[in-house]
Amino acid sequence: MTSIEEIVVQPPQSATWQVHLDRSMWVGGVRGLMLQALHPLAMRGVWQNSNFQEDPFGRLRRTADFVGRVTFGSPQEADEIGRRVRGIHKALRIHDPDTGRTHRVDDPELLLWVHCAEVSSYLEVARRGGLALTERQADRYLREQRRSAAYVGLHPDDVPGSCAEMDAYFKHVRPALRVTEEAASTVRFLLWPRLPRELRRLSPGKPAYFPFGALCYYTLPDWARRMYGALPEVPRATVTAALRAFRMGLNSLPEPLHDHAFLPATRKMLHASRERLGAAGYDVGKGLKGLTDPRRWPAAPAA
Predict the structure, then answer these.
(1) Is the model's pTM score more than 0.85?
(2) Does residue 15 carry a pLDDT above 50?
(3) Using an 8 Å Cβ cutoff, are 284 and 19 in contact?
(4) Number of other residues whose CB lies within 10 A of the CB of residue 31
């Protein structure tokens, strides 16, 4: 009999499913980009080696594809995208104008920063938005994300695996962070992005994007907002209420409708995941999100 480990990288019983199926991930993703930008070398790596300025949504969707494959994809799909990402990073370099030195994009310190900024954003935004996770479940999520970090080339033992370890990591790295010209431009751009060509038809509705971008900004840690100073401060309770309303609205969308936000390849992968889980006895009548309910698991869960 096929085991759940052969069907998906992370099983429905994982804390990762609770977080990664929550629609607050879109806020967490943009918040993660804003936080990542505070590391000068990491930001210059993005600036010098991608078309982020022209297509920020493309980068967000590609990140969503990676996260989806190393969560809901098969082990083979996760291994494939891991090899692809490691191969791309291995070939890229970063020029630091402050020192004149050239650095590898796959430098472990840079990979660790990107990973921690990303997964901590997913977790913190989801919990603040109302996802009920205990401290033990939050720690479990970060431990599970060590596996995701391994796909980009990090050693799991070098990656924070609890909330306390993540807090200690940020305390350690904060002295190296600063707002470079590229970081300031990135935050301004994420608050008011240029739409990619295929979405230009949505330009009349672009002003509606700003509240979303501002929500992502206001969910940043206090110390990060103080560094940026891009928007005037608002009461924390107001931000939390807005985040909860946003999360509730997106979580009410049917899964097929919500999935149109992803790349076609991501949607195909998610469809295949639903089919494999259905064949293994899971009730996928309400999609992958429905599987956060243990009552939809097989009577004797695949193991």
Answers:
(1) yes
(2) yes
(3) no
(4) 27
Distance from C-alpha of 141 to C-alpha of 119, rounded to nearest angstrom: 9
Domain boundaries, the chain: 9-262
HSE-CB of 111 using CA atoms within 13 angstroms: 23
Non-local (6+) Cβ contacts of 93 within 8 A are 102, 103, 104, 105
CA distances from 81 to 74, 114, 116, 192, 200 (A): 11, 17, 19, 30, 29
Interatomic CA distance for residues 48 and 295, integer angstroms: 48
> How many CA atoms lie within 13 Å of 230's alpha carbon, on the beta-carbon side?
25
For residues 139 and 14, what is the distance between their CA atoms, to the nearest angstrom? 12
If we measure between CA atoms, which residue out of 45, 168, 52 comes closest to residue 114? 45
Sequential DSSP letters for 63-123: HHHHHHHTTTS-HHHHHHHHHHHHHHHHH-EEE-TTT--EEETT-HHHHHHHHHHHHHHHH
Query: How far apart, in whole angstroms, are the C-alpha atoms of residue 32 and residue 253?
Result: 23
For 63, the token pair is: 């990140």
Mark out the alpha helices in 98-235 (DSSP H runs).
Answer: 108-128, 135-151, 163-173, 181-191, 209-218, 222-228
Whole-number mean pLDDT of the chain? 92
pLDDT band at residue 301, thresholds of 50, 70 and 90? very low
CA distance 303 to 300: 9
Q: What is the pLDDT of residues 63-72, one digit of tens each?
A: 999 999 999 9
Q: Which two tokens stand for residue 205?
A: 């509705």
